[in-house]
Amino acid sequence: MLRCPTPRSALAALAVLAPLAALAPTAQAQTGTQTGTPPAATTTTAPGETLLRLSEAGEVSRAPNELRLDLRAEARGTEAAAVQAQVNRAVQGALERAKAVSGVRASTTGYWTNREGPPNRAWVASQRIALRGSDPAPLLELAGALQSQGLALDNMSWTLSREETQAARQQAGKLAIDQLRARAAAVAEQLGMEVAGIRQISLDAPEPPMPRMAMAMRAEARPAPPPAAAPEDVTVTANVTAEVVLRAK
């Protein structure tokens, strides 16, 4: 069997990450987010062919279009029932107030009650409420009002909507595939060969990490001004790995 050696320097420069789409009719595509190891591929090639393994990455940036605020209602006291009742009233009031604000979506998360150790032995109850919206102005104004009522702002994060995330992942995948095709053609030309096809290809387009601003702002007795929020672009990355078959011209 005749194999054409592949220069180590050329292959080393190609080890980068990226997403998917069919590169050639012979490609076997795997779409979607993958966290495991790509399936093993056979290494048999026809006489005069060389198997080239490449990886590339595509990256796009998008301005976030959704804001999430996580607030917390908390109470301490000598009786478990009393502190839980206080938290329940605070959260119910926050939900009612959020319903009155157009464009704001409210939901509750973790609820816990615990007793502190000596010397106080006080009961502590806490529950979180998450606020989401595409228009930051009324959302931030609502958060400031809830802070004035005793809730603490734990976290603020900018996100992409599901539709924007999907569109960005598709574009990042296309960029990665275009780069991989160009790289494969360049390596083939350097070796005096041509691309015969793509034998196997895999895509990894993970959910993008969201810019966060961690905080724990406790309310004061006087009215609290609305919190400030400056959005940061979200980076979406897609990784593609492929086995490219080269043949002699």
UniProtKB/TrEMBL annotation:
InterPro entries: 26kDa_periplasmic_antigen, SIMPL/DUF541. This is SIMPL domain-containing protein. PANTHER family: PERIPLASMIC IMMUNOGENIC PROTEIN, SLR1258 PROTEIN. Residues 1-29 form the signal peptide. Residues 28-47 are annotated as: Disordered. It comes from the Bacteria. It comes from Roseomonas haemaphysalidis. Keywords: Signal. The keyword Signal applies.
